[in-house]
Automatic annotation (TrEMBL):
Allows the formation of correctly charged Asn-tRNA(Asn) or Gln-tRNA(Gln) through the transamidation of misacylated Asp-tRNA(Asn) or Glu-tRNA(Gln) in organisms which lack either or both of asparaginyl-tRNA or glutaminyl-tRNA synthetases. The reaction takes place in the presence of glutamine and ATP through an activated phospho-Asp-tRNA(Asn) or phospho-Glu-tRNA(Gln). This is Aspartyl/glutamyl-tRNA(Asn/Gln) amidotransferase subunit C. It comes from the Bacteria. The keyword Nucleotide-binding applies. Gene3D superfamilies: Glu-tRNAGln amidotransferase C subunit, N-terminal domain.
């Protein structure tokens, strides 16, 4: 059983860049201890012969051809622009 003390909880909060009030440190230490204890319990589970999986249902992700295209939707994209000229977005000049 791993028990996290207040000093370790304070250090973890600092390293994580999390602002933790002094009064909240005991609760943080207790939560971290529970997490570590749970991880130790998981380490005791016998997983010999168990196949790794990425999902609970065996399915194959849909595939597409990995080809480079221009999208062929220039007119549709430019239709949303407030000002378009010669096939490009037109923006006001900001630097003289």
């Amino acid at each position: 059983m791993s028990e996290i003390d207040l000093e370790t909880a304070r250090k973890v909060a600092k390293l994580s860049r999390i602002a933790v009030a002094e009064g909240e440190l005991p609760a943080l230490a207790q939560d971290l201890s529970r997490i570590l204890n749970f991880m130790e319990e998981l380490g005791e589970v016998d997983v010999e012969g168990v196949e790794p999986m990425t999902s609970v249902t065996p399915m194959r992700l849909p595939r597409r051809i990995d080809g480079v295209t221009d999208g062929d939707i220039q007119a549709k994209i430019l239709s949303n622009a407030p000002d378009a000229r010669e096939g490009f977005f037109a923006v006001p000049k900001v630097v003289e």
